[in-house]
UniProtKB/TrEMBL annotation:
<dbReference type="Pfam" id="PF07042">
    <property type="entry name" value="TrfA"/>
</dbReference>
<protein>
    <submittedName>
        <fullName>Uncharacterized protein</fullName>
    </submittedName>
</protein>
<dbReference type="InterPro" id="IPR010751">
    <property type="entry name" value="TrfA"/>
</dbReference>
Length: 302
């Protein structure tokens, strides 16, 4: 059955003219952008045809994706068993650090979606972007620290669907990408085998100086702590983090907590959790309401 799926997908790509088949710190971060710049065709910078190599304990991610609210902070599923409901966004301009512009269409995404996105990209392991990436659902779930029950497979299906149906327009003033987070997804219902394809042009944000290697062990230690995970991703992109105001971080992470007083309390707890896991020194200056993060070791970003 698995071979049948792979042959079918290969045939689709061959007929579509895409024969590639395989098994398998900028410091100017002083504000947020709410208004879109012109997202028009422009001269492109070099595109990384292959994702940068990282150690098994790291996952490469574009700084432009981590420095905004593409993957934000959502509340946990309601305890009374109600089905999780995510807001659908249509051409919504998302908050980002200054210099970036992000417009999104699709369901809201959170840090669990980012974990899946990170692992999907990591599965390339030297293969060209645009290749067919094949994996078993159980193996994938184990890799991101999930169980392998029927609900977990259903959850993975939902996340992959959300990533494939989320379209973004992302620009840093020099580089530009427009397209879905995952170009195509295929699934064998009997074997739980998946095949995914990325748009090769997403590699424009993985060239030198534009990506960071996130430490998997640290993210797992923060599992379930959405705000702490978002902070981990954002601050991992900076060796000497910029001091943001609490209100700025509230907007950047797209938190559902809109009252600054409540968010500040959540932020203090998240910074404490972040400090314990990473060894970074994190605090809020009560006089200026600025958030400070001081690192004792550099993070792998290129």
């Amino acid at each position: 059955m698995a071979n049948t799926l792979e042959k079918r997908i290969k045939a689709i790509h061959m007929h579509g003219g895409q024969p590639r088949v395989s098994e398998g710190g900028e410091r100017t971060l002083d504000g947020i952008v709410h208004e879109p710049t012109a997202l028009s065709a422009k001269s492109f910078s070099p595109v990384a045809s292959v994702l940068p190599p990282v150690a098994e304990g790291q996952r490469a991610m574009a700084n432009a994706i981590l420095r905004g609210s593409l993957f934000g902070v959502l509340s946990k599923k309601k305890s009374n068993g109600q089905q999780e409901v995510r807001k659908y966004e249509k051409k919504v301009v998302k908050a980002t650090v200054r210099g970036l512009t992000l417009m999104v269409t699709g369901e809201q995404r959170d840090q669990t979606d980012l974990d899946v996105f990170l692992e999907c990209l990591h599965r390339h392991k030297g293969l060209a972007l645009g290749s067919l990436i094949k994996f078993k659902g159980g193996n994938f779930l184990s890799a991101i620290g999930r169980s392998q029950g029927s609900s977990d497979y259903k959850w993975l299906d939902g996340v992959l669907h959300r990533l494939a149906t989320t379209s973004i327009e992302l620009s840093d003033g020099r580089r530009y990408f427009q397209g879905p987070l995952i170009a195509k997804t295929y699934r064998d219902e009997d074997t739980h085998e998946y095949i995914i394809v990325f748009d090769p042009d997403i590699g424009v944000f993985f060239v030198d100086g534009t990506w960071t290697g996130l430490l998997v062990e640290e993210r797992r230690a923060l599992r379930g702590k959405q705000l702490a995970l978002w902070l981990h991703g954002t601050y991992s992109t900076q060796d000497a983090p910029f001091a943001y105001k609490v209100e700025t971080l509230l907007n950047l992470c797209d938190s559902e907590t809109k009252k600054i007083f409540h968010f500040r309390a959540s932020l203090k707890k998240a910074l404490s959790d972040l400090s314990v896991v990473t060894g970074w020194t994190c605090w809020i200056d009560e006089k200026t309401d600025l958030v400070h993060v001081v690192k004792t070791k550099a993070v792998r970003h290129e």
